Amino acid sequence: MKNWIKLITFLIVSTFLLAACNTSEPETKAVNASDDSYEEATIRLAYNLPQDHHIAKGIEQFAKDVTEKSAGAIKVQVYPAGQLLTDKDMNQSILTGGVEMGVNSSTLWASTVPAMGIFDVPYIFTTYEEAGEAINGEFGNKLRSAMEEKGAKVLMFADYGYAQFANNKRPLESPSDFKGLKIRSIGDIPSEMIKAYGASPVFMGGGEVYMALQRNTVDGATSGTTAMVQRKYDEVAKYLTINNYAYLEFILAVNQDYWNGLPEKSQELLTETAKETEDWIRQQAKSEDETTAKQLEEKGMEVYVVPEEDLPEWKEAAKPAWDAFTKNSGDLGKELLEIVDKQ
Asked: What is the DSSP letter of 122?
């Protein structure tokens, strides 16, 4: 009888121990699952470009990828085409935390970090590859550090492509052909070049250019051919000059304090995804420039491509723009020019 009692006792204890062991496994898995998950966050991201622009497409995909990779924990809410902020209000909103993330041109960031005007310096990058190499190296790191000092973390450099000139008066086949024209400018440094070429720079938003050309408020405008197609310059401008004078960049920036408050795991995900997107956008910039230039020609614009052997003349005539950049950007600007010169 005692043996039966011992056996029953043994079976009860064994069953209890096995049950305890079995219940511990899900608890361990739950801990692991927690370790693999991301802290929930909702990030607002604003930009002003048309949604069919290659940068906009990249930014939209970036937002989707971050949300998917985090299994929905990190939600990136995108506000496209100026729905939330104008390009003039964007930088201040990022710096003050009014919005967590935003995309804006390096030209507009130059008012906060003067050295960001480097991308507007005429003829500084002659190829897409040169620009990418610089951004991925010491050149880009110095600009990132300068932005962080002001309160903005650069998450991505988004290549817009090269800037060109459209106008209604005549083919612009040399700097002297600009004399007397009123040209819509996109920033201080391009304005110095326009003045050096003998024309008068006029500031206005991208959305105002079509009407200004139509009403002869301006004779011409500078922009990338991607924007010229999207904003239908071919309907209001006759001549297009391809001289690749500036390699335009847009910056995906994050409020620095917000960034510092994110878990390291979330920072790594955002950084990794931004890098993938940056590489894709850079590949698109070249093909989009080529495609849209052809489209403008097919739509009736008379296109003049400045021969490579003539570019030194254009560059020399634009020297006042280089001087203006050096004066405004201080030691950092000089360092950046030296780095580019060594490439």
From this structure: T
